[in-house]
Amino acid sequence: MTARHAPGIERHCMKYQRNHPPAGLEEALQHHRAGRLQQADALYQKLPYDPDALHLRGVVAHQLHKNEEALEFITKAIRAKPSKAAYYFSIDPVYRALNRLDDVVSAYQALLARTPENALVHTNLGNAFRSQGKLDEAEASYRKAIALDPNHAAAHSNLGVLCKERGMLDEAVACYRKALVLQPDFVDAHNNLGVALKEQGQLDEAIACYQQALALQPDFAAAHNNLGTAFKDMGSPDQAIACYRRALALMPDVAQAHTNLGNALAAQGDLDGAIASYQAALQRDPNSPETHNNLGAALKEQGKLDEAVASHQRALALRPDFADAQINLGNALKQQNRLEEALACYLKAIELKPESVEAYTNLGNLLEESGNLDDALQCHQQALSLKPDFAEAHNNLGNVLKKQERLDEAMACYRQALALKPHDAAMHINLGNVLRQQRKLDEAIACYMNALERQPTSGEAYNSLGLAFADQDNTDAAMECYRTAITVAPGMAQAHNNLGVELQRRRKSEEALACFQQALTLKPDFADAYSNVGIIFHDHGRPDEAIACYLEALKHNPDFAVAQSNLLFAMQYSNAYTPEQVHAAHVQFADQFEIPLQTHWTGHANSREPGRRLKIGYVSPDFHKHAVAYFIEPVLACHDKAQVEVTCYYSHAHYDEVTHRLKALADRWVPCKHLSDHQLAERIRADGIDILIDLAGHTGGNRLLSFARRPAPVQATYLGYPATTGLSAIDYRITDVHAEPPGMTEALNTEQLWRLPEIFCCYRAHDNSPEPIDHPPSQDNGYVTFGCFNNFSKLTDPVLALWAKLLQQLPTARLILEIHGIDHAAFRQQVEERLASLGLPLERLMLVPRRPENQYVLYNRIDIA
């Protein structure tokens, strides 16, 4: 309904010419015009110092949605030829794609400083101002363009758009008419004139404008839409519906005509009208099985499942061999979660109509959702044998193979589905999901972008794109995608949950909590969201509330191993459980998740050659700036590489300088976040690891279910968790006599305790560690300062209450606490209220945010830690 930016980047580059192009540029342009972007780019690269080639490389990058690269190349071209307008026209859509409207304005203003009389540039500057909502500046730019070139049709048309947005319809009409006098084939101006005339109530003239626009450009979607709106306002319904109504006006008692009208209305989504038409047909012919069946399908779409089931059953009573009615009855029963009855319907439909692809497809989908993957696979394969070019069957087969972790085969199915149905957004998303699972993130992102090209309002595509960006550690892009998903699909609980996860990573816990709560409002049985709320409560030092959330998550998904580990972790912080109860809960974890795997344990083929190097594997999500890294780095650094070969299995996507330092200390480095627990276990077994060491326990990102498959002959847990894992597959827990005094805790560990001499760990100080001061701070302050820089979630109410008594006995003493997120006002208020309720004097507390630059520095401010 609005004017387009002129000229567009693709249109401009396809018309690109110059007097004396260097050798190779013309050939590159021929490839470019033909859409052979890779070939064109390869030739442009051979002209690295030619501004036009740089510019066109940027155009190619934009067309491939690589806008950061596009910006780099076009900017270089502008630096080389700052007065060439073509380059600025090309950088405009790049900046827009990057949502940098201020830069669009700045680019055109810079160009106008060199070519102030260029009307087209003033017009495009006006477009940029309009995109920013700066309507006065936009109007001034359009009027300046018209003053410079009174025959500039686009400027008149765009001024008309601006006038129309301001409610100045007469002025808008005059602008559009002026544009059309200057350029009679101006499609946008015809369409925009129609919009203004329609709002003035001049429907006949508006329709004529839309029809003229469509005569000039038959594929102009907005004009089709506007013409339909005008016809609707004039009382002229769609052609098919008009035909059925004319038939009914002539023969009102013909049941089939009512049924046909119902079918047309149902296809348009007018379910109420469709149902009324079907009921009118049945008043005239109550014995029509087809009409009963169609009525049932419409009722199902309205969620009236009991009525839908009754309609399909009446259809089958009239025609017992009606296979399609059996299928539709099965669909309604399935939606009621009456799965056994639905299964019987699909099987009966196949018996009645063995060539029914739809019956096999629905049966396969039901079996897949029920977890019967092998039989589901056979159903989809049978559907394909009946209809080899059925894209949905290839897609469904891919879904089953993906669940079976046969990812390459799943990918092949999705590619075949897309070869048959390239415009199906859901299939592009499915292919992207497999690629993302294989860590082929750039390819996955391309798939999601393809989906959005075909369905720009797909919340699922935006949500999946956000997950891919998150896997790339591009949290800004991920959050933008989740927010867009919520905008286009407000009821999408998963997008709310994913946005909450990213906000939580940024320590914006209140915003994250709101996202999780909204996800639960939309989906009350959303186990992931309950678990995430629990993590926030845990981080805020509220372990019992966290435990309640994890239990709620497990109520909705009893096999949710992550929530079970979170529960066990939170129990370490709670006063509500005895050590024996905590141990029993860990054993219960093993009973649920490990015992079913024990039947698949097999022997290990590791060589027993006495002199060979031992293969040691470490598994952790914490090979980055994390407490575990400080303690594992000395171990990796001090391994005798003549005797051991070290493999690190890194179960996280984030890389930083610590990651790269640890990677350099390992003989082999295996990123494994994308691998399932089964796949990781198989990889470890294939690597021939002799001793496998877990560094996470039940903390976040752990891979204990890989250890539960016993991929190595000797397995141990170490460092990252202060208790047993509960798994019998883990042989040893590495500790010392201080953490586990002999004779006291053996019964609380399923592993054998392996006590190291002296102490079980030592740390590598980071490179910027401050020197300790040479005297207690109390000598300077005149009072004693206590401090605790542990994770705030470890500070339970009894501990804080005890410290309150300590401060009461030392009336001049101070206490420093380092707390993540304390610089957020709402959280600080919660913390202060809690501390005050436990008797801690707030005026003697120093609550400081946890920041990397404070690490170890704050110890020089305290006397007693």
Account of the 3D structure:
It is built from 43 helices and ten strands. The protein is mainly alpha-helical and 865 residues long. The chain has a seven-stranded parallel sheet, with no helix packed on it. A three-stranded parallel sheet has the order 8-9-10, with no helix packed on it. α40 (704-707) links the parallel β4 and β5. α22 runs antiparallel to α23, α25 (407-420) runs antiparallel to α26 (425-437) and α28 (459-471) packs parallel to α30 (493-505). The two termini are 67 Å apart.
Keyword list:
globular, 865 residues, mainly alpha, disordered N terminus, 10 strands, three-stranded parallel β-sheet
The helical percent reads 55-70%
Main sheet strand line-up: 3-2-1-4-5-6-7
Separate helix tally: 43
End-to-end CA span: 67 Å
Shape: globular
* Arithmetic mean of pLDDT: 90
Which ranges are low-confidence, i.e. pLDDT below 50, for 5 or more consecutive residues?
1-18
**Largest sheet features:** 7 strands, parallel
Radius of gyration: 34 Å
- β-strand percent reads 5-15%
The count of β-strands is 10
In short:
With 865 residues, the protein is mainly α.
Question: Topology, pairings included?
Answer:
Layout: H1 9-14, H2 25-33, H3 37-44, H4 51-63, H5 67-80, H6 85-97, H7 101-114, H8 119-131, H9 135-148, H10 153-165, H11 169-182, H12 187-199, H13 203-216, H14 221-233, H15 239-250, H16 255-267, H17 271-284, H18 289-301, H19 305-318, H20 323-335, H21 339-352, H22 357-369, H23 373-386, H24 391-403, H25 407-420, H26 425-437, H27 441-454, H28 459-471, H29 475-488, H30 493-505, H31 509-522, H32 527-539, H33 543-556, H34 561-571, H35 579-593, H36 595-598, E1 614-620, H37 627-638, E2 644-650, H38 657-665, E3 668-671, H39 677-687, E4 691-694, H40 704-707, E5 714-718, E6 732-735, E7 752-755, H41 778-781, E8 785-788, H42 797-809, E9 814-819, H43 825-837, E10 845-849
Parallel strand pairs: 1-2, 1-4, 2-3, 4-5, 5-6, 6-7, 8-9, 9-10
Helix pairs in contact: 2-3, 3-4, 4-5, 4-6, 5-6, 6-7, 7-8, 8-9, 8-10, 9-10, 10-11, 10-12, 11-12, 12-13, 12-14, 13-14, 15-16, 16-17, 17-18, 18-19, 18-20, 19-20, 20-21, 20-22, 21-22, 22-23, 22-24, 23-24, 24-25, 25-26, 26-27, 26-28, 27-28, 28-29, 28-30, 29-30, 30-31, 30-32, 31-32, 32-33, ...
